[in-house]
Fold this sequence. Notes:
- The protein is an all-alpha fold.
- It has one domain (62-232).
- 77% of the residues lie in helices and 0% in strands.
- It is built from nine helices and no strands.
- It has helices at 13-44, 48-61, 65-75, 83-122, 136-146, 148-157, 162-171, 176-200, 206-232.
- Helix 2 crosses helix 3 (65-75), helix 3 (65-75) packs across helix 4 (83-122) and helix 4 runs antiparallel to helix 8.
- It is flat.
- It starts with 12 loop residues before the first helix and ends with a helix.
- 30% of the residues are buried.
- The model has no long low-confidence stretch (mean pLDDT 76).
Amino acid sequence: xxxxxxxxxxxxxxxxxxxxxxxxxxxxxxxxxxxxxxxxxxxxxxxxxxxxxxxxxxxxxxxxxxxxxxxxxxxxxxxxxxxxxxxxxxxxxxxxxxxxxxxxxxxxxxxxxxxxxxxxxxxxxxxxxxxxxxxxxxxxxxxxxxxxxxxxxxxxxxxxxxxxxxxxxxxxxxxxxxxxxxxxxxxxxxxxxxxxxxxxxxxxxxxxxxxxxxxxxxxxxxxxxxxxxxxxx
Length: 233
């Protein structure tokens, strides 16, 4: 009995790099960052702790510090750095008021960047006209597009992984205006929660630390309560 030898298409180096380009870019960035950090410590003779304190003083005390912080927050999803840590750092560096402002700016910019990255790689995989043809996943993607604002708002309020929501919404092509508006509103409780956590570490008195911790817990519960109310509606 004759068999037909079906050969799979050979994967080229370009195909491999295209598929894993984000991981390679993140790895190269971290290598460059660690290499630059090591070079700076050797050039200045500073210890790791002293260099970290110097970076903190620059971010907190320099006029360029907030701008650098926002830029780092914006590119954060490309290097897989946790958004919660960046938000808490804002509270640690700039206090509750300014820290919230900078965290919201950086968080929304990073979310928009991740959204468009997901939209680029998603292509027309779940195009609306193919919702019935592609089955279960495509129908849910179409449903997510139709109820974009409500869905994104609930996902933000229940603290689903930030970048997962960003990439998912871009991948299934949730309308950008609905995504951006729901993100702006939905991240408020979470941003305040983690900014206040960061501010606790720079508080001058025990009573102030307890007050900030209490407000942080209150914002966490508020976000979860709002998400439950929205889901019931």
